[in-house]
Every structure is written in C-alpha cells, then in structure tokens.
Amino acid sequence: MADNREKDTLELCDVPVIHEDVLARVKAKMPDEDPVYEVAELFKVFGDSTRARIICALNIEEMCVCDLSALLNMTQSAISHQLRLLKVSRIVKSRKQGRVVYYSLDDSHIGQIFAMAFDHVMEEQEG
Amino acid sequence: MADNREKDTLELCDVPVIHEDVLARVKAKMPDEDPVYEVAELFKVFGDSTRARIICALNIEEMCVCDLSALLNMTQSAISHQLRLLKVSRIVKSRKQGRVVYYSLDDSHIGQIFAMAFDHVMEEQEG
DNA sequence: TGAAAGCATGAACAAGTGCTCATATATTCA
DNA sequence: TGAATATATGAGCACTTGTTCATGCTTTCA
User: Across chain A, how many H-helices and E-strands are there?
Assistant: First the structure.
C-alpha cells in the first residue's frame, strides 16, 4: 500500500476479457452493488449453526432466552450474544415481560427462505 | 471426546427452564439436526460478498473465469479459489472447452433463494 | 430493602476465512 | 517442440468470528 512507482498502467486486475459480449450483457443485468452486499450479509447471519437453530426454533413459536439455552444445550451467554446479532440484523424481535424477554421472528420472509433452503438440501440428498 | 470420568451429573448447561410446555412443543416440531447444519453450511457459502456476486452473475448466464475476474474486478486466483468452494458445495458446475472453463449454476433453487433474499432486503429498505 | 432470577455485555482467545503470491497444470498454436 | 494462454492450487498472513468468563443491569419478591 506504499510503493506505486513504475506502475503507470496501474490496472489492479488486468485479466484479459475473452467474451466481451457476455461481459456486456451480464454487466447490464447485474443487480446494484448495495443490495448484493446486503443479501450476503443476511446469508452470513444465517450461516452459523447456532443462529440457524435459533431461527428454526423461533419459526415454531416465541421463546425466552433460557428456554432457548436449554433447547439448544448452550450457555445463556452464548445464546444472548447470538440473539443480539439477530436483533441488530432485524431477523428477530423481542418483547419484555417482567424479567423475561421473549424472542420471535421479525418477518415471515425468514421462514420462507429457510424452507426453500431445506428443500434444496433435501433434494441434494436424494439426487 | 476421551475423558468422561467424574461426570455423573454431566449437564453441560444447567440453565433453568421456565416454560416446559413450550420446550416440549418446540422439541417435537424442530427439524432434525443434520439438515439444519447443512442449511447453515449452505448459507455460509452464500454469505460472502464475492461468492454472492459470482452467483448473481452466473444466475444471468454462464461465464468463464477470466470474464468473471474482469466483471468483479478481482484477481483470477481469488475468483478461482471461490469457484472451487462453490463447486465443492454443488452450487456451481463447470464445463471445459479447450483451455477455457465455463461455470454456471448447478441448480435452479439457488436463484430462487437469492430472489427471496433480495425481496427481503428491499422491503427492509422501505420500512 | 436486599437477595435472587433472567438477561446483556465487554474482553480475550482459539479457530476459521479470504486474499495474495508464487507456482503448477493443461491446452493451443506457431 | 516451445511459448503463450487459461485455470488451479498450496502456503502464508491479516482479519473475522463464536465461545467462555466475569460482571453489570433490571425486575421480582420475601
């Protein structure tokens, strides 16, 4: 990140393009950058087994932290940390009643996306 | 995975359970462990922006490695490494023609799952 | 009011990940 | 056959991530 001398032609990545027509078409049809990054961020949150199990549980019904801990056989702290991430990502929402906090899925899309992913891995099994 | 002596009461995680009825219901309805882990693995692969962009591109049409490199402005090596992972995960397939290798999506589910995720992040935007 | 219950959070550390660099392999063509 | 092209891959490194541990906050109840 310091020495840029002798690099008048500073293409970061000067790979040759073989199919200019293909490139042009794909460039035209590619979705905008930002949504793609957001989709990747969403999948990144889904892509941890603890969080995936939490989502599967909350897709069945609302649960409090300690019940989730018992269900998944993990410490309250670990679950709580993950729930925080899921909440920041707007995947779950919470309501507090006394000293108990109940979590549930924030959006019906979430369950649908998981359902499709399940279908996919099930078919992979057979075929 | 070796030493289990002196662990007669081996609750790994003895959190109290508040709602036994909820726990019983969710336990009964929870999907099997293995598919959940596989779904998480699938999402993990989706959850990187480079791979997400590759998938978006290949969802439009088949492409070779160097065109992908040019499109995404990344080195051929970086793209090739990611394509390897995508192929092992059965998300893309490849066909070789001369010294050019063309990649495409291996399954129509993939595009559908991405489409749903896009819908989700778009609605998040609006509120 | 003080103790207990339920949950949240900061620090720290091991494990995992994505890129770069160098190099290997495979194919084409002169 | 030898050079050039297209792609693959192993090693290394900076960076990220998920858990644990200790502790703090909030609410309830005796």
Answer: 6, 3
User: In angstroms, how far is D10 C1' from A4 CA?
Assistant: 28
Question: In this complex, do B48 and A51 lie within 8 Å of one another by their Cβ atoms?
Answer: no
How many other CB atoms are found less than 10 A from the CB of residue B23?
18
Tens-level pLDDT at each residue, chain A (127 residues): 333 333 333 344 567 888 999 999 999 999 999 999 999 999 999 999 999 999 999 999 999 999 999 999 999 999 999 999 999 999 999 999 999 999 999 999 999 999 999 999 998 888 6
Interatomic separation, CA of residue B82 and C1' of nucleotide C20, rounded (Å)? 14
Q: Which amino acid is at A78?
A: A
The DSSP 8-state label assigned to residue A28 in this structure reads H
Where are the extended beta strands (E) located within A44-89? 63-64
Q: Which nucleotides of D are covered by protein (CB under 7 A)?
A: 5-11, 17-23, 26-28
A91 φ, ψ (degrees, to nearest 5): -95, -35
At residue B33, φ and ψ (nearest 5 deg) are -60, -55
- CA distance to partner chain A, nearest, from residue B60 (Å): 6
Considering CB atoms only, which of B51, B90, B100 is closest to A124?
A: B90
